[in-house]
Amino acid sequence: MSPLLAPDIPQIERALDGLLDRNAAARVLGMRSPTRRNWPEVIEYRGRRFRLAWCTSELEVRECLDAVDAEGAEGLVVLTPLDATRLGHDVAARLPRGRLEQSDRWAALRAAFRARDVDPRLRAHRWLADVLLERAPAAAYPPPAGGMLDLEAAWRALLEQVLGLPEGRADAAALLSWSLDLAGLVRFASLPDEARQAVANRLADTGGTGAGLVLAAAAAGRGTDALPVGLVCGVIFGEVEPRATLRDAAVRLEPLVGGTRVEPVAGRALADAARRVLARLAASDPAMARAVQLRAAALLTEVRADGEAALSPALDLGLDARMGEAAAALARTATSHSGDDAKRAWDLVQWAAAHDRAEDHRARLDRLLLAARLARWLTLRRPAAPRSMAELATAYAGDSGFADRARHALRAGDALPEVAAAYARLREEATTHREEENRLFAAALRDWNATGALGSNPLPVEKLLETVIAPLAHEVPVLVLVLDGLSFAVWRALADTVARLGWVEFCPRGGTVLSATAAVLPSVTEVSRTSLLCGRLTRGDQSTERVGFAAHPELVAASGARRPPRLFHKADLGPGPELEVLVRDAVADPQQRVVGVVHNAVDAQLAGSDQIELAWSAEGLRQVAALLRVARDAGRVVVVTGDHGHVVEEGTTLTAGGTGDRWRASGVAGEREVALAGGRVLSPEGGQTMVAAWSERIRYAARRGGYHGGASPQEVLIPLAVLGAGQPPPGWDMAPPAEPAWWRGVAEESPAAGLVTSDLPFGAVPSRRRAVDARQPELFAPVPLPVAADSATGSTATTIPSWIAALLASDAYTTQRRLAGRGAPADDHVQALLCALAARGGRLSRAGLAQALSAPVLRVSGLVSAVRRVLNLDQAQVLTTDSEDIVLDERLLRVQFRLGDSR
């Protein structure tokens, strides 16, 4: 095959450039061309007109030259298949330099790239030169570096300029993105057979087997299905040892990729690339992403793999299928109360949460996780009755209050009927458990009230100012944030969002998180909130509260005469979202030691629409986030509490004769009620007897979103949290996480669980640690080691696996500690962390690890970082983080530190 090419207009113009550069008055140019092209009759170039003449004989050439001599004005470009030897000497002499210019592919390629030379290897790829010349862009190719057009630069030009592949990338993900552009597929399909096959082979070699499948689909005319096919591969090749239905589906997939067999390795590579492309597409072009997903769903049905959709890590229907499988396990747990079923449900929920589209359905996945937690709660072993008021309050604050958060969240249901049905079954079963707990609580409440409501667990709400607020105010400025109607279920949701704003919970040094306060009976605003803010059992309105708060002796003593305690109500806060100047200035002034703010959003929502499912957050409570910001800047400690809790409407039955929503002034207690008298009973009318509902299933007033006034722990017990954004005040520490073990999916509570066990008054907890120097705060608090009871003596002894002891005694460990310098953690901290992880199979969430160590999450994160520096010998990933989990690879640790395999 001759390298001679029929010149196109740009090549003719480049030849004219050379001619006119040598002689600006030149009028004739001769060029060889093996064939005639569709040239125009005349071209204008550099202000001159040149007629293009196709001459197949010497005579025609001679006539054209004679004509241009006679006319004199126009120039002439002679285009002829003849070579110089077939032209007479007199004719050749009339041409510039006595010869015909010619355009071979290599000269043309040099000109197209403005290159000095061409890589000799290109001569073995004549098709590549022809395609590059035939499809050269209007703006010409970019010149190669160094002036040499090498083979790689030519390929890059083909991929980028001709086929439109961004940056010439040949990996499967880039090809899948490219396949979404129909124009690119058309350009590929229009290549000559030799070129198309060569391109496919090249991209398969450089981009991997997944890239080869994309090109195979494009070559088969199914290029627009390449991305959906990749997503289908995520199902078909989602198992290492596929079941029969998936093996059959792989065979049915072959026509979509040109009839070739899809190897599992190639299918997984394509699936992985398709996941990444769909993720980018979902963020940049949701409509296109949805169309791709619909097509993938259709192809799944076509290859009969739609029944295995849960294997898809990328498709929405895969997420729905995973949620459906989790729902089935949840429903089984609700019936069986089996720990194995609960674990299976938990694992399936984690599988759903790991799906690529999980963040697009965050609210649904959060509810699914809460359902798994509630299922785990249903499997717990519960202590036999009777139980004291302190035990019941502690259990509700640290256990059942979390269950109520999950139970209430599940009322929102789900768009999938099977998931919604599982939620309803879980809620029904959980409510049955709650009813029994409520009955026990009501009996304990009656006895506790009758015997003087002794102790501080729960703390009577009227003692909060004297016992907690005033001692704190002597040390730091305090903001008392009273969320009217705050239940434990609502607070557990709010607490997560408050933590994201930079606040951590404090607890008395040597103790654990504070438990709860108890509302005045009945649990209504007129008596309970007024008693809280006046510091004594009383009833009244906002004016009573304002006067009582400002005159409280202990608060006044902590405040000083010039800035007595100040209390603000809803009207003082203004419509928001910004704070009124008066409130902002008071909170911002650190000399104003005590500021109280009453926020009514929670209580007000009890009368709200039942068609709205509220997501409780600090940002969602108007002005609360602003209050917290100003308080943080002023260095305040914030005490969050309420005046009473509430129960939510879930199919209650109306009972006649009530004075309030959930209580009546007198009478005989019915089956779901308890009679209370004396003690802390103080009705809004001044009476000291009442009958209150303890069951969630009855009400005495018109139906609305929620109620209070009854004797259930949901209404009587009120959260109490002391929050700070800096160092704890003297006598206080950062609190460990409050979550029970089942909240993290663990069946049993760790020995160091952080529940309130002391009945000592707040502020009187004895210190078991030396005072902390405020100038140099400790990085880590001492952490207890896991302990086990001696079966013979009943005493506890430290349980340390032998490999941990061997690690701490090893030379490699000692060297690692020395290299870490001052950042090395103490040996007992390393030991405690490893014991906690080993007890849970090498994996714990951050909150779970903090719970196991009785340490704040903030400190645990720093401890993990420090231990990682020591244990990750030679950068081996012995201790790693996986999202919110801390993971220990014990096998790798043994290898790195030469501890052997025996345990």
UniProtKB/TrEMBL annotation:
This is BREX-2 system phosphatase PglZ. It comes from the Bacteria. Transmembrane segments: none annotated. InterPro entries: BREX_PglZ, PglZ_2nd, PglZ_C, PglZ_N. It comes from Dankookia rubra. Residues 21-103 form the Alkaline phosphatase-like protein PglZ N-terminal domain. Residues 171-313 form the Alkaline phosphatase-like protein PglZ second domain. Residues 801-898 form the Alkaline phosphatase-like protein PglZ C-terminal domain. Coiled coil: none annotated. It holds the Pfam family PglZ. The lineage of its organism: Bacteria, Pseudomonadati, Pseudomonadota, Alphaproteobacteria, Acetobacterales.
